[in-house]
Design goal:
mainly alpha; homohexamer; 109 residues; globular
């Protein structure tokens, strides 16, 4: 669907998508920290698809389970109980990633 | 005002305030990372007082200007142009903190 | 400003303002319960002017301090730490209302 | 999934879950009033899972259909037309609960 | 479900539904402009059902693909990357409408 | 403050600001329609500074009072009563612009 949107020829949307990717690339902050920030931001804003994306990226960048739960705890405290359904889904996605890792399979977006 | 609220005797509110403080204490993630997460979360949710608090805490934890702007860039991309007025205030608070540091004064909450 | 807006002749806005007033009038639920609902809704949505309005209306309907803090606790748990600045303002408005009551003055909108 | 999350050993999350449960327990306000507040807060914040939870709890606490619709009306006026899809789901859940009650079955979370 | 809700006899809800329909009727602004406004508002507030509704109405009012993407670009810039999953769904709905139009079928709500 | 932020050297933020300006430039949709969309989006998201900006731009693009109120009515219906404080400020800004126009002065950002 991203390809479909980018092919529509709207330059503003195309450029925004590029900026979006670049925001999480290593700079003075490393990818891992940026992906955890993306996870926290997506959780407090309760965006399911964004959360799934950042959980997978966090796993790829080597975020540990304890780091993951500390990040989710910040999101839970900032955003309150309405984030709980999204925290459940985040943990479910994490468990699926860990399951893949245990089986020696790659965790892919 | 926090003291006034805590003195009101509502146990739930009192305990929430305690959890709120603890969420940013060093765990497997360091204080600096947690405060930057708090800054990003507050910015996408557009909470002025929370942003001011986390900017000051970031400065106290030694976040550099470049790190600061990379964190704000994540917030801007995730949250869109409606975060801009809050990003302006965040940078204004940062500038005031740096001014204090240049004069050898302490940056306090 | 409400009069200015209503005088502009937009029927939709005029009718919405009427529905807004009626939503808090006594029905099968009493005014007090409805005003506390309005307070909780305004707090989780972080609307300062709405919070001030509903705090005053709650005081007028005889909401006690303990009831007030239990309602705010629900809002705090649901909405998280970003509601804290608004909870501070709500309590400040409550204190001003109580001060007026102690002096035998009327609490007005 | 709650058990999974609680077993992860993050104390902050564990304690938040406890505070969340306690916020709706009878205090100076009764359970019914608190659950209706939870319903209104969840509706204006448009959290589907939270709405389903509070609708069921409202039914368990004996909220009548008329009370239910007056609470939803407050949420609709405060939160606007974007709450309508969630109000539809709330009423659908209510109807399922009433159907169970008509058949003499228990309404469970 | 709308009929079910309207039949419940809550006058406030009934009247709000009427105001909601009327807000998009031709006035000094035409239907097309109003539906595009509804689309932008629904997208920044990330309401899936509302977006689907306004995409279909936009197509019925003759909004072109380029106009559609310019409206979505405004929403994307204002609301940030968390609107992307909803922009994907909006474009998917648009494609389904265009497919129907190519086959000479009517685009219906 | 925008200059201060742009001078900080964060390329992502710089480019976002450029995209933000371009989103409202005439394309297949004219400036006036885009500014009204910006006004509606800012109002439902309750961003004061953004609303002030778009009200002024709407006035500069020749939006009439009736068009203005129809746009605000869409925002009010979509976003609910929590938008009312922002609608008041929008109308106040409009009145200040009209006052300037009556005195033959230019309406500037």
């Amino acid at each position: 669907m991203n390809e479909r949107i980018l092919s529509a020829g709207n330059l503003g949307i195309k450029r925004f998508f590029a900026l979006d990717s670049r925001a999480y690339e290593k700079g003075v902050l490393d990818d891992k920290t940026k992906e955890m920030m993306g996870l926290v931001a997506s959780t407090v804003l309760r965006c399911s698809d964004c959360i799934t994306y950042h959980v997978i990226r966090c796993v790829q960048e080597g975020v540990s389970d304890d780091e993951f739960f500390e990040a989710l705890n910040v999101a839970l405290i900032v955003g309150g109980s309405i984030t709980i359904p999204h925290i459940r889904r985040a943990v479910d996605t994490l468990d699926q990633c860990r399951e893949k890792q245990r089986k020696g399979r790659q965790v892919k977006l």
